[in-house]
Amino acid sequence: MNIRVEAYANIYPSAGTRKLTWLFDRTSNQPIREQTQKALSVIPRIETTVLKPLVRRPGNNPRKTHRQPVKVIILGQPGSGKSSVLRSLYLDLAPRQFESERVVSKTAIQINIIDSIKKILAVLQDEWAAHEGSTPLTSEHQRLAFSLSLVLASETGSIQTPDSPNSGSTVRSGKGWKDKLMSFGRPTMSTSSDSEAHSPGDSGSATADPSRVAQVLAACREGIILLWEDDVVRRVLSSHGLNLQGNSCRFLDDTARIARLDYIPSDDDTMRARMRTPTPGVEEHRLVSESNPGREFLVTEIHTRIGQLSYFDDVQTIIFLAPLIFWQTLDEAPRVNRIEDTFNMWRGIVSSPLLAQTTLIVLFNKKDILQAQIAAGVLVKKYILNYGDRTNDVPSFSAINRASSTRRLLTCCDTEATDTKSTAMVLGRAMRDQIFTKYLMIRCT
Ligand SMILES: Nc1nc2c(ncn2[C@@H]2O[C@H](COP(=O)(O)OP(=O)(O)OP(=O)(O)O)[C@@H](O)[C@H]2O)c(=O)[nH]1
Ligand SMILES: [Mg+2]
């Protein structure tokens, strides 16, 4: 059976964007000579910037290059749909991997909350030890912290409990229950918190007893919520430099939902449990294609604006999210229209020498919301001054966006990222095409 590959490329001089088609033999992965001859004949005329990145080192074995993970970055302003797109990629490329990890991630996520609360209890213990008498923490906090630590630590089965605060004594400073507490749940699976970089499924790390973890967490549920939502506690944690927004605390906000015996991780939970990078603002996911085993994608969702990052080394594909919500401004800059902000980001990408040779997939996302707004009579020209007298409909608006594309190997699609199935199809096709295009070009150079 053959594989048909279609790609768009800018052909010079002046031929504009052309669709190229190749056929590959599925078994050997080799292009079929006669059918591809015509397409190959135009390759030398493709813009050299397209060809350049594909020639990594002269004499490199193209097959070897082909088998390296494809490095993909998902970029877009906050709320543009990056995570939704990532979910679609999982569904398209590795649905079984994702489902099996949903089960495993349950314990990893619950342990993440236990780890977080242990860190918090340890900080509170330090606060009491260092500032006894002057700390803003009350005896109520002390009782709560103590009862939580007791439930967690007693699960080790070997704890020497300190005096109960109910009997009038205070929680002791020093190691004592703190050490016992820290040992609970070890060795564990991990959600790759700050210092770790492996997935929940990594061999050798998944030794915690899932039902015991779930029971302990359920028993601590109310106490954890009380402690975590307490303003005084938060101030104390901040004053001790504990990063409450960091990876290590990222599931605490969802304790009410997660600390239950019947908890099933959502798609979002499963993805967050799998992220691998300690870099703030960056989430890295390794997806192994199930239809083409051996093909790996290293997909990174970046929450920071372009220009602040040196994360683009060696990236092959950027999926850029351009949400079509022309009537909204940015939360962080209420005078800046979202479309304008998106175009500024876009300009940053296409003018960056670092990304000059990266292939680009632009997703004009939230098309369902755009359609609803236009159907409700919202006028584009009221928000986008240079819209002029164009017709106030979806095709005209989309045409403007597409016209802004540059002379680059570029795929543009309108998407509704929350419709994971259709986005998965669009993206899967675009990414597969780009891999084969890349492979073919390497062979031609
Ligand atoms: N109706 C609609 N909602 C969408 C679409 N794409 C994303 N959303 C919603 O928009 C919100 C933000 O989507 P995310 O995928 O979390 O966006 P993000 O870019 O990852 O956001 P940050 O990680 O916070 O920067 C979520 O509530 C999504 O359900 C879309 O095409 N249509
Ligand atoms: Mg996100």
UniProtKB/TrEMBL annotation:
**Top-level taxon of origin:** Eukaryota
Give me the residues that bind GTP, please: 365-368, 417
One biological process term from GO is:
adenylate cyclase-modulating G protein-coupled receptor signaling pathway
Question: Which residue ranges are recorded for the region named Disordered?
Answer: 157-176, 182-209
Q: Where is the composition biased (Polar residues)?
A: 157-172
Gene Ontology, cellular component aspect? cytoplasm; heterotrimeric G-protein complex
Protein name in UniProt = G-protein alpha subunit
